[in-house]
Amino acid sequence: MSDRRNFLRGAAASVVAGTSLLAGGTLSASAASQLAQVKLKPKRIIALEEHFMLPEFEGYLHETQQNLKSGLVDKVVTPLSDFGQRRLDIMDEHGIDFAVLSLSGPGVQIEPDTNKAVRLARYANDRLAAEMQKRPTRYGGFAHLAMQDPQAAADELERCVRQLQMQGGMINGETNGLYLDDRRYDVFWQRVEELAVPVYIHPGNPPDYPHMYANHPEMWGPVWSWAAETCSHALRLVFSGTFDRFPGAKIILGHMGETLPIQIWRLDSRYKIANTKYEIQHLPSWYLRRNIMLTTSGVCDDAALRCALDSMGEHNVMFSVDYPFEDTKTATDWIRNANISDSERNKVAWENAAALMKIQHL
Ligand code: MN
Q1: Known catalytic membership, residue 322
Q2: 186 shares its domain with 200
Q3: N or C: the chain end with fewer CB closer than 10 Å?
Q4: In this structure, are 121 and 196 located in the same domain?
Q5: Domain that includes residue 176, residue range
Q6: Residue of 31, 11, 5, 47 lying closest to 335 (CA atoms)
Q7: What is the residue-wise DSSP string for 7-29?
Q8: Is 335's pLDDT higher than 50?
């Protein structure tokens, strides 16, 4: 790292901390404004895995209680439920210009009554759209979808994108034991391709409790099982040929790609000797780079980011926090100072997301 960059980062850190680098402790107005701009590097920040909650869905949120420390879910309900000053103050304090909001999972995907799930998903999306309309320059949205009914989910995604100005959809893992490569979801993927919007595959629990997690509750959830589950979900789409049938469909994975970036070489190498049910047209890496984008949510780690940029491509990595489950300051301080080029930093922080989701007002 150059001395100049070190100096600027030190200066930016001082501005953040409210201290001055200069002897005497005063800064001229122009120097202060220059340093404030340093703090603002990258030029913009867009965050994509930022959750909210509505009272009608808190019962579904408690499904997640089994994966987390006792009482944690109750603690996050208050920050999740705020669309106003508390959320905006945190965004402002840490320089997040635009947040694409999503209902905290699993939501209606665990509702046993399909008609009720479809109805409640529409309600959640209408409520989110109302909040987006109040602050169109700050909030976007990912549609909440009742995946029990693939046709209804496709129609709702279209309504949310075309009428409610949302940026795509979010799906929380499997639904009723069905994964997204099931041919019943072809109607959904066809619509995703037509609409040219991404679908964020957010972690959820699998339909059964695998024996390998027996007596290891710490591995059941964000420490490990969600990465294995969500990564497998994405790989099912690759190996089933879903992306051969719908080449324009794009998904987003959080948590630095749920371990995928480090696996790419081996996926290609061992696919050649694997038993296969469907012969995909290209090697796995080809689909990973074309159809899968990832976010940095919950992984504030330079080594993991370097790997993601190098293996997935610099256009496929996007910043996120995972608010309020992760700390906004930790995530934004990290991306400002991560050991990557400023060109890469701008791509990750906002340019890739703006291009993918056609966010033009920034
Ligand atoms: Mn999340």
Answers
A1: yes
A2: yes
A3: N
A4: yes
A5: 44-357
A6: 47
A7: HHHHHHHHHHHT--SSTTS---H
A8: yes
